[in-house]
Amino acid sequence: QVQLVESGGGLVQTGGSLRLSCAASGRTLSERVFGWFRQAPGKEREFVARVNWNYCITYYADSVKGRFTISKDNAKNTVYLQMNSLKPEDTAVYYCAAGTSFSTASTSYNYWGQGTQVTVSS
Is the pLDDT of residue 28 over 80? Predict the structure, then answer.
């Protein structure tokens, strides 16, 4: 069982930055892949970025590559999503998720946080 709690969302202007945090607890964290997904109103949930706990291998959606950075702090059991150069189209609820497959599909992730709202004003 893995528990995930996100924080750090908010309202920011175009071009601004935010850092989301995902505090993880539970067993077998070292076997997990952690991902960030987002869902805008009326749209499907989409993959943003992922990192595996042991080797810190990262992967990004094309829409955020070069602007977002996923990282982790093993000592704090926390995964971060640093978001720079934010655009209005980045507005969504952002979710942290944990799974065991190195995948971009939301169905590959078994555990989900409650989500945190990110709103980018134009």
Answer: no
Report how far residue 83's alpha carbon sits from residue 61's, in angstroms, rounded to the nearest whole number: 13
Asked if 2 contacts 111 with a C-beta cutoff of 8 angstroms, the reply is yes
Above 90 in pLDDT, residue 19?
yes
Instruction: Work out the number of other CB atoms within 10 angstroms of the CB of residue 121.
Output: 11
Residue 6 neighbours by CB under 8 Å, 6+ apart: 20, 21, 22, 94, 95, 96, 113, 114, 115, 116
**Cα–Cα dist 36/19, whole Å:** 12
Res. 31: pLDDT tops 90 = no
50 — phi, psi (to 5°)?
Answer: -150, 160
